[in-house]
Amino acid sequence: MDQALLPNGSVVLLKGGDKKLVIYGRKQMSLGEEQQIYDYIGVPYPEGFINEQYTYVFNHAAVEQVVFEGYRDEDEVKFQDVLQQVPKQKPE
Prior knowledge:
Elements: E1 11-14, E2 21-29, E3 37-44, E4 56-58, E5 63-68, H1 74-84
Antiparallel strand pairs: 1-2, 1-5, 2-3, 3-4
Organism: Priestia veravalensis
InterPro entries: DUF4176 (IPR025233)
Protein name: Cytoplasmic protein
């Protein structure tokens, strides 16, 4: 991973999107047929979690605009090292 991921609590607008999402998790695995690891999981902002149908996984490359960057302290900086160790794809 070339860059640090955005912290939890960040609010973003995706390319082609018209609804902001708030990030509440990083390095998430999709549960569909093709299990893939995504950079982020988010929910609509300002509503938050509604149900699974309104929960989205996406990669950093899909972010068009960072509206708000979440809290970053020394714990977050240390956790970025952990996130860097997670592979982009699920190991076979």
